[in-house]
């Protein structure tokens, strides 16, 4: 059926060309956008008109009436407006041409503003120009694109027919814009750092590897931008941030995509408490700017909704306390590997060969606590051996000053008081290398360039990474990360062959 419709529309193009009409002209320039037209002339009362000559461009999304009067809907700049097309105004010959327009065609229209007797703002069309033919039929207005896989493979079509998809990306844009404005107001400087890295560090993740032909070396696509941003702080850029496209060679899930967007920011003369404060402000500001409210809704798998007020202070809960609340007993890295391994096994937590006491505690937390977090919660004070870039806790040498922000069982942000002692940092990198040799593919390597940078003096500093995609998931109340990625990673699909 689709091929038949496509052929019919190709035939229309041939007919137009035979009549000397270019179906893809470039000489139509609107005098205003559809959105501005609606904003400017919404004052018209039912039956009112304005004599201003207007030229609009957009896509035809509704087309009804085949007699001497046609009502159409023009869509442009996320806004719809009605077209009032009367043969008494256009003339019969031009009306016959207008009747060849199909849903999805891009057109340019000229006319004057009016409001129908029912009070609907419209453009009274004098002339209509075909700007681009839509060869393939759009999905049915009512059923839309029911195939989820097809929605993500053909995002351009999804955006045409699915208002909720367009809304999600408007929310994403406004959220990112608000964060950028907020950080700029606080005297942060935005920078861009390399995508290709020589060493792995700053995060626990399996990388994508590529080869640079001219240099004859292997490089990694970045899994983080942390170490470069800290080098900026060493260089005197005391408040720095980057919106970074980041890559991790991991599986696909509702919360994972191999490439994603991270916001990382670092501020000299601050610690993880300051970073939690700033993270709260950033997320609440993004919610207000993107959705108009601090209150967001989270929908669970059963369709039940929970309202969360992001203007309220987020809960702060030490990791060891959170585990104790579930187990009823206190655990600590000093308990030793044997005891903690036994506790893990009793709670069906799989212990990997390279695990240390800290990994056991983290495993218990991830299994018993994390999935049940709904309200925004900072989990704080992680085991030292799970956080190679974090400063030792000022009250407990077995812990570090780190937090992760969780909502609805998902990590949104990760931050800490940064290590600024190059000797300590090198030792922690060496421990990571031992983990890697013991079988942890996600452990980092030693970045000696970063160690050298620290030796020039790195001031006390706090830093945070926020997963922009996951944050937008919550603001838009969607359940899968692919809903907020315009073109998510997919398995190869069918190619266009006709």
Structure notes:
The chain has 498 residues and is of the alpha+beta class. The two termini are 13 Å apart. α6 packs across α7 and α7 (163-185) packs across α9 (272-291). Helix content is 33%, strand content 25%. The model has no long low-confidence stretch (mean pLDDT 93). The chain is built from 15 helices and 18 strands.
List the helices and strands and how they pair.
Blueprint: H1 2-18, H2 34-41, E1 54-64, E2 69-76, E3 79-86, H3 87-90, H4 92-98, E4 106-115, E5 121-132, H5 148-153, H6 155-161, H7 163-185, E6 189-190, E7 196-197, E8 209-212, E9 217-221, H8 226-234, E10 239-247, E11 259-268, H9 272-291, E12 295-299, E13 305-309, E14 315-318, H10 319-327, H11 337-346, H12 357-368, E15 377-383, E16 399-407, E17 410-417, H13 422-437, H14 448-454, E18 461-467, H15 468-476
Parallel strand pairs: 3-5, 6-10, 14-15
Antiparallel strand pairs: 1-2, 1-4, 2-3, 4-5, 7-9, 8-9, 10-11, 11-18, 12-13, 15-16, 16-17, 17-18
Helix pairs in contact: 6-7, 7-9, 7-15, 10-12, 11-12, 13-14
C-alpha Rg (nearest Å) = 29 Å
Biggest sheet: strands, sense, closure? 8 strands, mixed
- Total count of strands: 18
Q: From the helix content, strand content and strand pairing, which structural class follows?
A: alpha+beta
Helix content: 25-40%
Low-confidence stretches: none
Q: State which percent range the strand residues make up.
A: 25-35%
Continuous helix count: 15
Q: Termini distance?
A: 13 Å
Mean pLDDT value: 93
């Amino acid at each position: 059926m689709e091929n038949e419709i496509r052929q019919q529309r190709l035939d229309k193009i041939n007919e137009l060309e035979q009549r000397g009409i270019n179906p893809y002209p470039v000489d139509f320039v609107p005098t205003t956008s559809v959105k501005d037209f609606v904003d400017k002339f919404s004052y018209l009362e039912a039956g009112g008109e304005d004599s201003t000559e207007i030229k609009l461009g957009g896509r035809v999304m509704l087309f009804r009436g085949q007699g001497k009067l046609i009502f159409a809907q023009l869509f442009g700049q996320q806004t719809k407006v009605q077209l009032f097309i009367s043969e008494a105004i256009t003339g019969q010959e031009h009306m016959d041409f207008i009747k060849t327009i199909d849903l999805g065609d891009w057109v340019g229209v000229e006319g004057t503003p009016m409001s129908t007797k029912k009070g609907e703002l419209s453009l009274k069309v004098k002339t209509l120009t075909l700007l681009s033919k839509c060869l393939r039929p759009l999905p049915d207005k009512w059923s839309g694109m029911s195939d989820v896989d097809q929605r993500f493979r053909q995002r351009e079509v999804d955006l045409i027919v699915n208002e909720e998809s367009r809304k999600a990306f408007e929310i994403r844009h406004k959220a990112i814009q608000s964060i950028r404005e907020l950080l700029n107001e606080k005297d942060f400087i935005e920078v861009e750092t390399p995508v290709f890295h020589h060493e792995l560090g700053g995060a626990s993740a399996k990388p994508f590897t590529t080869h640079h032909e001219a240099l004859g070396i292997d490089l990694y696509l970045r899994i983080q931008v942390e170490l470069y941003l800290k080098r900026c702080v060493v260089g005197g850029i005391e408040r720095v941030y980057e919106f970074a496209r980041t890559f991790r060679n991991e599986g696909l899930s509702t919360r994972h995509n191999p490439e994603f967007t991270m916001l990382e920011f670092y501020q000299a003369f601050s610690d993880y408490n300051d970073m939690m404060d700033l993270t709260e402000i950033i997320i609440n500001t993004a919610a207000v700017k993107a959705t108009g409210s601090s209150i967001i809704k989270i929908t669970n798998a059963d369709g039940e909704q929970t309202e969360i007020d992001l203007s309220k202070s987020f809960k702060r809960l030490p990791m060891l306390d959170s585990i104790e609340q579930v187990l009823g007993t206190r655990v600590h890295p000093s308990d030793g590997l044997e005891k903690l391994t036994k506790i893990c096994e009793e709670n069906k937590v799989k212990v990997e060969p390279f695990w240390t006491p800290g990994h056991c505690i983290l495993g218990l937390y991830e299994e018993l606590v994390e999935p049940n977090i709904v309200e925004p919660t900072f989990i704080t004070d992680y085991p030292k051996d799970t956080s190679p870039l974090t400063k030792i806790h000022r009250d407990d040498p077995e812990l570090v000053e780190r937090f992760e922000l969780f909502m609805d069982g998902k990590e949104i942000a990760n931050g800490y008081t940064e290590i600024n002692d190059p000797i300590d940092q090198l030792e922690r990198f060496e421990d990571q290398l031992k983990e890697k040799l013991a079988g942890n593919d996600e452990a980092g390597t030693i970045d000696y360039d970063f160690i050298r940078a620290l030796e020039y003096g790195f001031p006390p500093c706090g830093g945070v990474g926020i997963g922009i995609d996951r944050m937008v998931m919550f603001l838009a109340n969607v359940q899968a990360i692919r809903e907020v990625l315009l073109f998510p990673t997919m398995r190869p699909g069918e190619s266009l062959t006709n």
